[in-house]
Amino acid sequence: MKRITLLPALAATIALVVAGCGGASDDSSGSSATAAGGKSSTTLSLVAFSTPEVVYDELIPDFKKTDAGKGVGFKTSFGASGEQSRAVEAGLKADVVNFSLAPDVDRLVKAGLVADDWTSATPEKGMATTSLVAFVVRKGNPKGIKGWDDLLKPGVKVVTPNPFTSGAAKWNLLGAYQHGGIDYVSKLLKEHVPVQPKSGREALQTFTGGEGDVLISYEYEYTTAVKKGQKDLELVVPDDTFLIQNPIAVTKNAGPAAKAFVDFALSPAGQQDFANWGYRPVDQTVLDKNKDKFPADPSKVTNIDQIGGWSKINDQLFDPEQGAIAKIESDAGVSTAK
User: Fold this and answer.
1) Beta-sheet pairing, 240-250 with 38-39
2) Of 19, 241, 311, 324, which residue is 20 to 30 A from 63 by alpha carbon distance?
């Protein structure tokens, strides 16, 4: 089976960001960040993983309507979580970061760019949203996909991103790992995954473009696709799955406007913006008000702490030199370079 891996060079990523091509835009409009009546008094740089771009297109204007957001402009960059984190480490300016998984923030802690107590900076332990690993299938579910074992049926082609550029891919593969261990992951990747885009958003675009029978993804990627007009898709949440936790943090050199923006993202209004696009709010009250958007109730949901935490799992599964999944990918010809 021919395998394609989309892995652009980090330098190219930074160059695109600097050129204004790596994210949504400045102030989500492509122009310089301005406030009503003139130039903004503060400009925040938001660097985030690819999927919540649609949320920030709404959340940023909502924040700017508040007293704390008056006079605040934005420069935004969206891309594969791992690449975004490495770009900030390499010098891309960021006041607020919102990544797919905690290790991408921890990289910036080690680089001296984010405080080491970032997980205690908010009541939500540094998390902005959660979700569940799920499957997106074609209308009518022609392959009869109900659970993880169905992904290994003969002829089933699966789309999931590259775990060495995408945080989404790590969550996806942890869902596979909690179900069937490393042998299941090996069979899935080697025999059923012909393409691994660089990010969760590119994986969705690849799938809606006609590639594959199943997309392993977040619940909210399905919501995004439907809200953007895709009518030929269905969501399947397996009985056993993995809890996704997406962190948000301010950098050490950021001013008070950055903290105010994070506070707004975690406020009921900001959390509702996330819920509108299928993200599970970390604010329990907002989650309860949006239960109709999250009808799935899996019988088993595993979280990262239950399998040893990110430090252990990254070494055990994703370390480029000795990780079990890294070896599977390398043997299959997929780049594991970070």
Assistant:
1) unpaired
2) 19
Give a yes or no: residue 88 inside a domain.
yes
Lookup: tokens for 170: 């790590």
CATH number of the domain that residue 163 is part of: 3.40.190.10
Q: For residue 144, which phi and psi values (nearest 5 degrees)?
A: 65, 45
**Paired strand residues for 244:** 131
Number of Cβ within a 10 Å radius of residue 199? 27
Q: How far apart are CA 269 and CA 178, in angstroms?
A: 34
Percent of the residues in the chain that have a pLDDT greater than 90, as a whole number: 77
Assess contact for 131 and 220: CB atoms under 8 A: yes
- The residues, ordered by sequence, that sit 6+ positions from 229 with a Cβ below 8 Å of its Cβ are none
Strand-pair partners of 75: 26, 45
Asked if 137 contacts 213 with a C-beta cutoff of 8 angstroms, the reply is yes
Residue 338 counted as domain residue: no
Separation of alpha carbons 224 and 60, rounded Å: 18
Are 269 and 64 contacting, i.e. CB atoms less than 8 angstroms apart?
A: no
| Residue 279 DSSP label | P
Between CA 263 and CA 273 the distance in angstroms is 14
Q: What is the pLDDT of residues 253-298, one digit of tens each?
A: 999 999 999 999 999 999 999 999 999 999 999 999 999 998 778 9
Q: Which domain holds residue 206?
A: 130-242+298-331
Axis-axis angle for helices 167-192, 81-89 (nearest 10): 130
For residue 226, the one-letter residue type is V
138 plus 194 within the same structural domain: yes
d(CA 49, CA 29): 19
Q: Do 200 and 322 have their domain in common?
A: yes
Whether 180 is covered by a domain: the verdict is: yes
Query: Could you tell me the two tokens for 190?
Result: 């080697």
